[in-house]
């Protein structure tokens, strides 16, 4: 039986329907892909929903380039923050990034002026809601001091992440790009809020109070001897914080007028030590002296006598230790109550110096209040 061909009118009537079928299928397929991407953990539905992260660049090895003077030699701070961001693929998928150059120095030259500029800019950014988090690129030599300073002066619960590298940007196995990528991951994560200033290097997240540099050249250099890392970052598992954010209000201090903190000296204890370094610090106008003591923050009798005399003159004396880990305890080997000393607890000498500067600048002089400030987080 012969089949009749459809009439031209029927063919014209069915043509829109025939064309619509693949268009609908394509639309459904596209919608399914978009829905799957939106539902996939860690994926944003659109670029508009990405967190806003400001990168404040200060220089350091992470921005360093090779120098011909020796194998492995380099010059710090040769690459801008903008160039650093452009060199790391995939950052634009994590956050909306902007960069500002605060300085271009090696962190051995870090100073009060740069600290104040960082603190003021970060506070302005948070107060004006210009960003959801801040990253600071920094050299490793004094990274821990900058982190601790900012932790004590920046108000708010938005994340501040400081990042650096042990190898320059031009090195064959540069660690800076991976560290910067992970720093953006942490700064962009809502779980990072309320944790104070954090350092992100070598797949670890360290707290500002505990972190310290422990090796001269290894990329596995930053550790927290008394507390351990507060979290980890890896490409497969993402971010793992070891505990919930404490939710405690951190004590913060106002920046003093001008661009400089009070003079506080660190005196390093050693065998056969006399009073000369202490007397020299006093003669140069030190308002405070931090003892990097042996063992539990101890030192020789001549040095202790000089420190006791300094305390009687109103100079703040803090006993810390040159030992890598452990707490300095009151009134065990030294009569702190009698001598008017403060102990640093877990703070190493360089961080004890930072806190002493802020306390002196804030007019805190009573021994009990001074000790309370050093014991604040325990």
Distance between the termini: 95 Å
Computed Rg: 28 Å
**Spatial order of the strands forming the largest sheet:** 4-1-5-6-7-8-11-12
> What proportion strand?
15-25%
How would a textbook summarize the main sheet? 8 strands, mixed
For the secondary structure, the number of strands is: 16
* Principal-axis shape: globular
How many individual helices? 10
SSE order, as H and E? HEEEHEHEHEHEEEEEEEHEHEHEHH
Poorly predicted sequence stretches spanning 5 or more consecutive residues: 1-45
Q: What fraction, in percent, of the residue positions are helical?
A: 25-40%
Structural class: alpha/beta
The overall pLDDT average reads 87
Describe the structure.
The protein has 378 residues and is α/β, with parallel strands linked by helices. The protein is 33% helix and 19% strand. The chain has 10 helices and 16 strands. The chain has helices spanning 8-39, 81-86, 112-127, 143-153, 176-188, 276-283, 301-312, 336-339, 349-361, 367-374, and strands at residues 52-59, 65-66, 74-75, 96-105, 133-137, 160-163, 197-201, 204-207, 212-213, 222-223, 231-234, 238-241, 264-268, 288-293, 316-321, 342-343. The strands form 4 sheets. Strands 4-1-5-6-7-8-11-12 form an 8-stranded mixed β-sheet, with helices on both faces. The protein has a 4-stranded parallel β-sheet with strand order 13-14-15-16, with helices on both faces. Strand 2 and strand 3 (74-75) form a beta hairpin. The longest helix is centred in the first third of the chain and has 32 residues, at 8-39. The model is unreliable at 1-45 (pLDDT under 50).
């Amino acid at each position: 039986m012969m089949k009749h061909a459809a009439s031209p009118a029927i063919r014209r009537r069915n043509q829109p329907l025939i064309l619509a079928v693949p268009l609908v299928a394509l639309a459904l397929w596209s919608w399914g892909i978009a829905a799957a991407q939106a539902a996939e953990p860690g994926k944003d539905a659109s670029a508009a929903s990405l967190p806003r992260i400001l990168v404040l660049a200060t220089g350091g090895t992470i921005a360093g380039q090779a120098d011909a003077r020796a194998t492995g030699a380099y010059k710090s701070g040769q690459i801008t923050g903008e160039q650093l961001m452009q060199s790391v693929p995939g950052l634009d998928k994590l956050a909306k990034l902007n960069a500002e150059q605060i300085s271009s120095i090696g962190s051995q030259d870090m100073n009060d002026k740069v600290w104040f500029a960082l603190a003021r800019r970060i506070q302005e950014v948070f107060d004006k809601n210009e960003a959801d988090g801040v990253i600071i690129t920094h050299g490793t030599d004094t990274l821990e001091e900058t982190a601790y300073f900012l932790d004590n002066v920046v108000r708010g619960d938005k994340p501040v992440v400081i990042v650096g590298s042990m190898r320059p940007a031009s090195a064959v196995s540069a660690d800076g790009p991976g560290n910067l990528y992970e720093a953006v991951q942490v700064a962009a994560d809502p779980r990072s809020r309320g944790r104070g200033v954090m350092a992100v290097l070598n797949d670890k997240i360290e707290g500002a109070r505990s972190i310290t540099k422990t090796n001269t050249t290894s990329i596995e250099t930053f550790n927290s001897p008394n507390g351990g890392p507060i979290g980890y970052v890896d490409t497969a598992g993402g971010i793992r914080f070891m505990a919930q954010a404490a939710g405690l209000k951190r004590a913060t201090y106002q920046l003093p007028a001008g661009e400089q903190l009070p003079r506080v000296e660190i005196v390093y204890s050693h065998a056969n030590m006399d009073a000369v370094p202490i007397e020299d610090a006093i003669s140069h106008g030190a308002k405070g002296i931090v003892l990097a003591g042996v063992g539990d923050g101890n030192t020789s009798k001549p040095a202790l006598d000089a420190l006791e005399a300094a305390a009687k003159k109103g100079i703040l004396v803090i006993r810390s230790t040159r030992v890598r880990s452990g707490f300095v305890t009151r009134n065990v080997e030294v009569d702190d109550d009698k001598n008017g000393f403060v102990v640093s607890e877990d703070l190493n000498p360089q961080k004890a110096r930072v806190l002493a500067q802020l306390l002196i600048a804030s007019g805190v002089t009573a021994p009990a209040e001074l000790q309370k400030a050093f014991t604040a987080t325990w």
